[in-house]
Design a protein that fits this description.
Elements: E1 6-8, E2 11-13, E3 17-19, H1 28-36, E4 41-43, E5 47-48, H2 49-66, H3 70-98, E6 103-108, H4 112-125, E7 129-133, H5 147-160, E8 167-171, H6 178-186, E9 192-195, E10 203-205, E11 210-212, H7 223-233, E12 240-244, H8 250-259, E13 263-266, H9 268-273, H10 277-292, H11 312-324
Parallel strand pairs: 3-4, 3-13, 4-6, 5-6, 6-7, 7-8, 8-9, 9-12, 12-13
Antiparallel strand pairs: 1-2, 10-11
Helix pairs in contact: 2-3, 3-4, 4-5, 7-8, 8-10
Bound molecules: flavin mononucleotide (FMN).
């Protein structure tokens, strides 16, 4: 029987399937269910700095009516932050006590100070690793094209100097030179990169003339983007790679390993099919490996990565020409 173990962020995983940060990883019941159905690690739902800021701002609006002065508000700022971080670190502690698989904490902040504060607390609570979800929207026309890159590197430097657990960064694909940025970030001392985060994309209701949010979950076609970039970058980075976005079945897992991923992260597939889909994916992975005669993941990791090709740039061009010159 094939050996499915892999290493990711220096952690030994029993297989390459990780439950991505989502609403399914924010309570103990579903974390236990994910473990039961085969997940090899859990990335907890992110703690968002905005949750704290919004709560504080709501209180600040009422401050005059309630007779609070600046000193009171400082105190409430502290209390709100402590309450939220305590709730999050409690989840880390409970998950660590109840499941045997690695627990990766996830944080999403915008101010540099809060990243450090949250990270230190997650480490103290016993998280096995930390994933930073640095989502800088590429829609601000006032920002220089390398703003996001600089910001990522500045945040990483601060956090790396403050924690001792492994660190991964989940990035978006929206950089002006993605390959260069991925490589630079991979060399910044981090342990892993997650390709990619998925931004909220609005949809329009043409009857009500309203904006809605019907694209929350990915579909299997969306694997194209992460597969392409894992394949391009897997032999050019100095850290592990986890593929995220559009992995919905066992075939998706196999493809990402062939591209060079150490692990994959699932969110939408779990929402659409239930967490038992992990068991089905693992079964398929095992059967495929047995059929192909692969005993372990290392035997085929990166086999179809771009670096495995003798002339990657030309291959890209030939595929493009074959397709668009109508010969396919
Ligand atoms: C309902 C929902 C909630 C999510 N919450 C978070 C989150 O808190 N932090 C995070 O980094 N990613 C979050 N994500 C993004 C996922 O972790 C994942 O990167 C993205 O959905 C792409 O993977 P998928 O195609 O398997 O869904 C969320 C996704 C969904 C669908």
């Amino acid at each position: 029987m094939a050996n499915l173990t892999t290493t990711y962020l220096g952690l030994q995983l029993k297989n390459p399937i990780i439950a991505a940060s989502s609403g399914l990883t924010e309570n103990l019941k579903s974390i236990k269910e994910l473990e039961k159905n085969g997940a090899a690690a859990i990335v907890l739902k992110s703690i968002f700095e905005e949750e704290i800021t919004h709560e504080y701002e709501a209180l600040a609006k009422e401050a005059d009516n309630l007779g609070y002065n600046a000193e009171h508000m400082d105190y409430f700022d502290y209390q709100i932050r402590e309450k939220n971080i305590t709730r999050y670190t409690q989840l880390i502690k409970e998950a660590k006590a109840e499941v045997d698989i690695p627990i990766i904490a996830s944080i999403n902040c915008f101010s540099t100070h809060e990243w450090e504060y949250f990270a230190k607390n997650c480490e103290k609570a016993g998280a096995d690793a930390l994933e930073l979800n640095i989502s800088i929207s590429p829609s601000d026309t006032e920002l220089e094209s390398n703003f996001a890159e600089k910001k990522h590197l500045a945040i990483i430097e601060k956090i790396k100097n403050n924690i001792n657990i492994p660190l991964s960064i989940k990035i978006s694909p929206y950089f002006s030179n993605l390959a260069t940025v991925i490589q630079k970030i991979s060399k910044s001392g981090i342990d892993g990169l997650v390709l990619f985060n998925r931004f909220f994309s609005p949809d329009f209701d043409i009857d009500k003339l309203e904006i809605n949010s019907s694209f929350i979950l990915s579909n299997p076609d969306e694997i194209a983007l992460s597969l392409r970039w894992v394949s391009i970058m897997s032999k050019k980075v100095d850290c592990d790679l986890a593929a995220s976005t559009g992995i919905h079945d066992g075939e998706g897992v196999i493809k990402q390993i062939l591209a060079g991923a150490n692990a994959v992260q699932l969110a939408s597939a779990l929402y659409k099919n239930g967490t038992t889909i992990i068991t089905d994916m693992l079964k398929m992975l095992e059967e495929w490996m047995d059929k192909k005669g692969f005993d372990n993941l290392e035997q085929y990791r990166g086999l179809l990565s771009q670096a495995a090709s003798s002339d990657p740039a030309m291959d890209d061009r030939v595929q493009f020409m074959k397709y668009f010159s109508g010969k396919f």
